[in-house]
Design goal:
Leucine-rich Repeat Variant, disordered N terminus, Serine Threonine Protein Phosphatase 5, Tetratricopeptide repeat, mainly alpha
Amino acid sequence: MKAQFCFIGVSLLSASIAMGQPGSPDKMRTGEGMKKLFSYEDMERMKQIPADVERAMQQLKMFDFAPKMGDWNMKPGMDMAFKPGMFGSGYAFAFQKGRGEDQGERQYERGKRSLDNKRWDEAVGQFEEAAAANKSIADGAMYWKAYALMKLGRGKEATAVLDDLAKGFPQSRWLNDAKAMRVEIAQAAGRPVSPESATDDDLKLMAINGLMQSDAERAIPLLEKILTSQSSHKLRERALFVLSQSSSPKGREVLTRIAKGGANPDLQVQAIRTLGLHGGKESRQLLADIYASSSDLAVKKQILNSFMVSGERERMLAIAKSDPNPALRSSAIHYLGTMGANTQLAAMYGSESSTELRAQIMQAMFVGGNSEKLIEIAKTEKDPALRLRAISHLGTMGSTKTGAALVELYTSNSDAEVRKKILTALFVQGNAKGIVEVARKETNADLRRSAVQHLSNMRSKDATDFLMEILNK
């Protein structure tokens, strides 16, 4: 169990490290400051933030601590498997979703990594799986599958995939790129593909980067050409990054056009990510305008991520309060937790009437470490389910932070269900001393038995001494 929470903590910590301490981005928000702060490698790590946060949140959602000895219930639709040695010694819980949209997104990202590493055969299979699993990214997956096939010298197969793309997605924003690929396939027809004919992407970028330092106006058209050509995914993303380092109005114009949707969806998302990292107040306003005008869920999610990285709490709060899309509203609430927006979340909890959203806000408070508000909810919340949920969150926050409050809550509350939940919370945080303290005064036989059951599963001197005390009576 500790290993599972360690995994959740690592997921949240990786997001926190990547984006910095809450509020710190505001101090670095000048364009030049941000350019010095983040490298291309940092940009690559930033891509993982939404996945880290979402994975951690999904792990937290699975836990609904039960009042039985060391037991907990799992949410429906999840498969639980024990894997020896997964986190070192012993067993740990591994939770796996069924095939679906999440699997499609994972395969899509794996496919892009395979392209970056020129593993064309692997990329073909990964994009094929992505297209089958997630219809919302199927057109992009088909495009990149065709690209990988073209790189393998299988032009006819690539063209067939592009035909299917045009038929299946007649309004796709990938069609312009697909037309350019058809031209390249036709030009290459009959020519053998050899490693010697491959261009060195890194060398090209080094040359353009050097040119940016000496003659930016000359370099920008070259970068724009790369962005609109059939260059590799890696080269186009790096070109976009180099472009973001320019203070040239022309460079800014190109970046803004791509962020507004003037390229394929992958590049648009990357441009939005870049604006969130390197831009100032003007960039953040641009992102807000794009969010308001776009209907693309992936674009909106990336803008939320950019708002999180740039410390845009007020904009994030506005979305969390009023966005008509429940998924986006939920994501905004989660991000507020990772941003440490405890004051805003506490105010939102007080004004929100939806039980489901209040539960999500509580979860975000847990992520933000707001134990004070969770203790208050555990004491005063009228909804029994929310009150029990608050107690569960307190149990995962560590005995030094919430142990005393849980013991006090147990003493002041006579409800048997609440007391059982508190016993489980104390067990989760390894607080044998707290369980012994309440067990000594407990007169209810069932509750006392539950306390002893928890203590019998804890390796603690306090637990052992109390169990010996019972045996010696």
